[in-house]
Structures are given as C-alpha cells and as structure tokens.
UniProtKB/TrEMBL annotation:
Assigned GO CC terms: plasma membrane
Signal peptide range in chain numbering: none
Membrane topology recorded in Swiss-Prot or TrEMBL: Multi-pass membrane protein
Source organism, top-level taxon: Bacteria
InterPro entries named in the record: Brnchd-chn_aa_trnsp_permease
Family: Belongs to the AzlC family.
Protein location: Cell membrane
The protein's name: Branched-chain amino acid transporter AzlC
Presence of the UniProt keyword Transferase in the record: no
Positions of transmembrane segments: 21-41, 47-67, 136-153, 159-182, 189-208
Length: 239
C-alpha cells in the first residue's frame, strides 16, 4: 500500500478543520447579501464586494457608511482601518509562508480570512516540522470550505433580500465566528491577558467613531501580551 501523500494529507486536514465554520460563514454571508440589497446595491455590486474584498467586517462597515452618505475617502479609510488586522495576520504567517513564490503569496493574501488564519496559525505552531508545500496545502484546505461558501451565501442573501424573516437573527454569526476562532488560542497567561484587555478597552472606547476603539484595543492587547510574556520569562529565569 503506497504511503499517503503528505501534501494531500495536509490539504484534507485543513479542509476538515475548516468545515465547522460553514455554520457561521453561511449566515454571515446571507446577512451581508441582505444588508447590501437593502442599502440599494444591485446584485453585481453586492457580489463585487464579496468577491473583490472578501472581508465581512469591512464590507458591513463600508455599506453602513455608504448608507449614511459618508464621503468616499472616509468609506475607504474606515474599511481599511477595520481590516488592518490582516496586516498582523500576515506578519504572523510570514515566517512560515514567506519563502513561497510571489504568486502563491498573492493567493494567500487574497484568501486571508479570519478563519483560515486562525486555523493555519494553530496548525503551524503544533506541526513546525511541516514543509512549505504542506503548510500551503493546509492553508488551501482551510480556505476551501469557507471562501466559496461566502460567495454563495452572499448571492443567496442578495437574491432573497428582505424575504428572509428577521426572526432568523442571522447577525449571531459574527460574534460566534470570532469566539470559535479565539477560544482555542487562549493557551497561556499572555493570551488570556491580551484577550481580557482587548475586551475591556473595546467596551470602554465603544463611543469612538469608525472602529477607532477596536484599533486602540488591539494595540493595547498586543502590548499587554508582550509584557506578560516578558514577565513570565523573567519569573521562570529566577526560579
């Protein structure tokens, strides 16, 4: 019996890990499709958002600002600010995927969604012996059930529009998605401290416009996590 192909194994492992996110990606996409049509966008414009941008949080932000008649520059800058976390994701994965060819890194960047990043970061940390090809295959597998479903769900939401009953409460998908991604990653005191600080600061600064409070909370969380790691390392060195 031939030995299993490690690249194929990595892909299907990523695919299996990404499957549970269908439970939240689907309603999230439906919700954006509905929100886009209710904001006055046609089918092509709604699908253009999801295919070209493929970033749910910034898409919702942009649509809301457009409804509020905000200037185009404000729409672009605010959406970019909401999506700045992708820069942190990229920096985190760079040590693992940096040697890949430019066209492969371009595909990784395009399909960089929260779910794929969270799965890949955890997998690379637990399996550091993987080759670059295996890491790319895992990333592709994690994206395979998530990204196409986002497109399909957006199309269904835009097609159905306001016909979807409000009692479906599709907006539950957003917080559940992030809880599912963050929960398994809280494996150390630094992780818990950073998460706690981000929650508190985000709530305290919720009054700030255009997601500014979230950016400040993210920065405070990173500083807190780094300081706690330094403190823990010093404590261990003294023992």
């Amino acid at each position: 019996m031939p030995a299993p192909n490690p690249i194929s194994t990595a892909f299907w492992r990523g695919f299996r890990h990404g499957l549970p996110f269908l439970l939240v990606v689907a309603p999230f996409g439906l919700l954006f499709g509905v929100a886009g049509t209710e904001a006055g966008l046609n089918m092509a414009e709604v699908m253009g958002f999801s295919i070209l941008v493929i970033a749910g949080a910034s898409q919702f932000t942009a649509v809301q600002l457009m409804v509020d008649q905000a200037p185009v520059l404000m729409v672009l800058l605010t959406s970019l600010a909401v999506n700045l976390r992708m820069a942190m994701y990229s920096a985190s994965l760079a040590p693992h995927l940096g040697p890949a060819p430019s066209w492969q890194k371009a595909l990784v960047a395009y399909f960089m969604v929260d779910q794929a990043y969270a799965l890949a970061a955890a997998d690379y940390e637990t399996r550091p012996e993987q080759s670059l090809a295996e890491k790319l295959a895992y990333y592709a597998g994690a994206c395979a059930p998530v990204c196409p479903q986002w497109y399909v769900a957006t199309w269904i939401g835009a097609w159905a529009g306001a016909a979807i009953p409000p009692e479906f409460a599709l907006d539950f998908a957003v917080p559940i998605t992030f809880l599912a991604m963050i929960g398994p990653g809280l494996r150390s005191l630094a992780h818990v401290a950073a998460a706690s600080v981000s929650v508190v600061v985000a709530l305290v600064l919720a009054f700030l416009p255009a997601g500014t409070g979230l950016l400040i909370a993210a920065l405070a969380a990173m500083i807190t996590g780094a300081q706690v790691e330094i403190w823990v390392a010093r404590r261990r060195a003294m023992e």
